[in-house]
Write a structure and sequence with these properties.
It comes from Candidatus Anaerostipes avistercoris. It catalyses: dTMP + ATP = dTDP + ADP. InterPro entries: P-loop_NTPase, Thymidylate_kin-like_dom, Thymidylate_kin_CS, Thymidylate_kinase. This is Thymidylate kinase. Helix 1 crosses helix 8, helix 2 packs antiparallel against helix 3 and helix 3 crosses helix 5. The protein is an alpha/beta fold and 205 residues long. The protein has eight helices and five strands, in the order E-H-E-H-H-E-H-H-E-H-H-E-H. The radius of gyration is 16 Å and the shape is globular. The structure holds thymidine-5'-phosphate (TMP). Thymidine-5'-phosphate (TMP) binds next to helix 4.
Length: 205
């Protein structure tokens, strides 16, 4: 079996940069790496992403939103993640079920138990071996996003929503310390990468 690593954090926490650095680090050591993102990573999941993040779909209900994320995830697990792990690859996924627990379960108020229960159908026993959570303040994250591109439906949410996301991540990191590693996102890119590389080395050995 391969190794399944997921990267979590509020919008603008620097996940993408860290995923690239981790990919280069592990490729340099000779590992076979598969990178994917959520929602997305397959033709069908990317199409679902377009629906979920469409800034004009402001009327989307919380249940619809949660089920669409779970549907995109089910397809990604079946088509990409599970086969890659069966072929001994290291899969690094930008967001996974913890994003739903935090954004839909906590920030939208649907409850994390319900979110994990529904997602059980989507992922089965394909759970990450390690989840890295980059902790950052809501203000810092969203102002970074504003500089980058046009904001999507989720990024356009209120500051209170983004604040609940930040607090939600902190909460689940305390609740599940055995599988979620919280890293302070205010450090330098190199420093954060060093901490992530050390955690991954530890789990590989
Ligand atoms: P991204 O900007 O990191 O690509 O993620 C897309 C947005 O979707 C981001 O605002 C987080 C949100 N999201 C959820 O609300 N629930 C989920 O399950 C996932 C995977 C993402």
């Amino acid at each position: 079996m391969g190794l399944f690593i997921t990267m979590e954090g509020p919008d603008g926490s620097g996940k993408s940069t860290q995923i690239e650095l981790l990919r280069d680090y592990l490729s340099g050591k000779g590992y076979d790496i598969i990178i994917c993102r959520e929602p997305g990573g397959t033709k069908i999941s990317e199409a679902i992403r377009q629906v979920i993040l469409n800034k004009d779909f402001t009327e989307m209900g919380n249940m619809t939103e949660m089920l669409l994320y779970a549907a995109a995830r089910a397809q990604l697990v079946e088509e990409v993640i599970r086969p890659a792990l069966e072929n001994d690859k290291i899969v690094i996924c930008d967001r996974f079920v913890e994003s739903s627990a935090v954004y839909q379960g906590i920030a939208r108020g649907m409850g994390i138990e319900l979110v994990y229960e529904i997602n059980q159908y989507a992922i089965g026993d394909t759970m990450p071996d390690l989840t890295i959570m980059i902790d950052i303040d809501a203000g810092t994250g969203i102002s970074r996003k504003k500089k980058q591109a046009e904001l999507d439906r989720m990024e356009r949410e209120t500051m209170e929503f983004h604040q609940r996301v930040v607090e939600g991540y902190r909460k689940i990191a305390v609740q599940y310390p055995e599988r979620i590693l919280k890293i302070d996102g205010s450090g330098s890119i190199e420093d954060i990468h060093g901490q992530i590389a050390a955690a991954v080395d530890k789990i590989i050995s």
